[in-house]
Design a protein that fits this description.
InterPro entries: NAP-like_sf, NAP_family. The protein contains 11 helices and 6 strands. With about 375 residues, the chain is α+β, with helices and mostly antiparallel strands. A hairpin with a 7-residue loop joins strand 1 and strand 2.
C-alpha cells in the first residue's frame, strides 16, 4: 500500500528550543501569525477553540493510521503465499507449469517481423535442447534490481556484487498487535563463503501520533529510528572494511616493522549498521544520512518488495520516472506562480478592517 502522505524522512531532533509553555506549539504558532494580536479578544478565543478541534482531528487521524498498519499486517499474510512462490521460482526450487508461464505481449508480437519470429523460435528450440546449460531459476534476480534502481545502485560497490548473487529473497514483516509500530526488512541468503548468516535484518521503528510540541505537523506515520544486525563475516571476507598496511620505524633502534589495520570502506552491507541520531539534533550531515536511510527502507517496503519482477524487467522504473516528471512539472508551475506573485504587493492584511473583495476564480 503506497500512501503518499506517509512520512519516511527523518525529522530534526533537539536543537535550540524556545522557552516551554503550557500551550502546545500549534497554539503558539497562532500568536506568531501576522496581525493575530489585532484580532478582538473574543475572536482569539474562538480561534483557540478551532485549534482544539484541529488537535482532536489529528488524534483521530493517528488512530486511523494505526488501523491502516493493522490492515497492512493482515494483508501481508495474504500476499505471503504469492511471495513465497516467487522466491521458489527465482531460486529454482520449483519450475512453473506451462499454464503459469503464459503471458501474451501484443506489442512484442507486432514489432517482430515474421522472419524474425521464425528465427527466434528456432533459437528457442536450440536452447531448449541444451538442457545441461539451463540456468537455475532466475539468475541474479535481486542483484539486477539493485543495479537498475538508482537509489540502490548508489550504495552498491563492485565487491558487493558477488555476495548479492546469493540473495534469494527480501521480505517485510509488520509488528504484532499491541507492540510499538514497526516493520522489519529481511534479506534471505543461500549458504555462501562470505558470512554464516542466512537472514540479515533491518528494523524500522515508527511513530503514529501527533508531536506534543508541534501537533499540527502530523501527516501520518513516520520512521523515527532503525536497528541493523550483526553480520558474522568469514575470516578475511568482510567487505565493509579494507586492510591497510603501514611501515613504522622505531625512533631509537631504527628498525622498521609493518603493521596492518582495518579501515571502513563503502559497501551496501553498511546498511545493516545504521548510524544513530545525535542527541542534540544539531548534526545536519548525520540527520541527512538518517533521512536517506529511512527513505531507502520505506522504498524497499512500499515499492521493491511488492513489485520486484517489474523492477527486474524495468517496467516499474518507467512508472517511477513518470511520477518524477509529473512532480517536476508541478514544481515548475509553482515557481512560475511565485515569480508572478513577487510583482504584486497588496500590502498587509488587517483583520480588524473590511477584507478586500475576493477575486472570482474559475474552478
Amino acid at each position: 500500500m503506497d500512501r503518499k502522505n506517509e512520512k519516511s524522512e527523518a525529522k530534526g531532533k533537539g536543537g535550540n528550543k524556545p522557552p516551554q509553555s503550557d500551550k502546545p506549539e500549534g497554539f503558539l504558532q497562532v500568536e506568531r501569525t501576522a496581525n493575530f494580536q489585532l484580532l478582538p479578544k473574543i475572536v482569539k478565543r474562538r480561534v483557540y477553540a478551532l485549534k482544539r478541534l484541529q488537535l482532536q482531528s489529528a488524534n483521530i487521524e493517528a488512530k486511523f493510521y494505526e488501523e491502516v498498519h493493522e490492515l497492512e499486517r493482515k494483508y501481508a499474510g495474504l500476499y505471503q503465499p504469492i511471495f513465497d512462490k516467487r522466491r521458489d521460482i527465482v531460486a529454482g526450487a520449483i519450475e512453473p507449469t506451462d499454464e503459469e508461464c503464459e503471458w501474451q505481449s501484443d506489442r512484442e508480437e507486432e514489432e517482430l517481423a515474421e522472419d524474425l519470429q521464425k528465427k527466434a523460435a528456432l533459437e528457442e528450440k536450440q536452447a531448449d535442447s541444451a538442457g545441461a546449460d539451463d540456468p537455475k531459476g532466475v539468475p541474479e534476480f535481486w542483484l539486477t534490481i539493485f543495479k537498475r534502481v538508482d537509489m540502490l545502485a548508489e550504495m552498491l560497490q563492485e565487491h558487493d556484487e558477488p555476495i548479492l548473487k546469493h540473495l534469494q529473497d527480501i521480505t517485510v514483516k509488520f509488528s504484532e498487535p499491541g507492540q510499538p509500530m514497526s516493520f522489519t526488512l529481511e534479506f534471505h541468503f543461500e549458504q555462501n563463503s562470505y558470512f554464516s548468516n542466512t537472514v540479515l535484518t533491518k528494523v524500522y521503528k515508527m511513530k503514529s501520533e501527533p508531536d506534543a510540541e508541534d501537533p499540527f505537523s502530523f501527516e501520518g506515520p513516520e520512521i523515527i529510528d532503525c536497528e541493523g544486525c550483526k553480520i558474522d563475516w568469514q575470516k578475511g571476507k568482510d567487505v565493509t572494511v579494507r586492510i591497510v598496511k603501514k611501515k613504522q620505524k622505531h625512533k631509537g633502534r631504527g628498525t622498521v616493522r609493518t603493521v596492518t589495520k582495518e579501515v571502513p570502506q563503502d559497501s551496501f552491507f553498511n546498511f545493516f549498521s545504521p548510524v544513530k541520531a545525535s542527541p542534540d539534533g544539531m548534526d545536519e550531515d548525520l540527520d541527512l544520512t538518517l533521512a536517506t536511510d529511512f527513505e531507502i527502507g520505506h522504498f524497499f517496503r512500499e515499492r521493491v518488495i511488492p513489485r520486484a519482477v517489474l523492477y527486474f524487467t524495468g517496467e516499474a522504473l518507467e512508472d517511477d520516472e513518470s511520477f518524477e516528471e509529473e512532480d517536476l512539472e508541478e514544481g515548475e508551475e509553482e515557481e512560475d506562480l511565485d515569480e508572478e506573485g513577487e510583482e504584486e504587493d497588496e500590502g498587509e492584511f488587517d483583520p480588524t478592517k473590511d477584507p478586500p473583495p475576493a477575486e472570482c476564480k474559475q474552478q
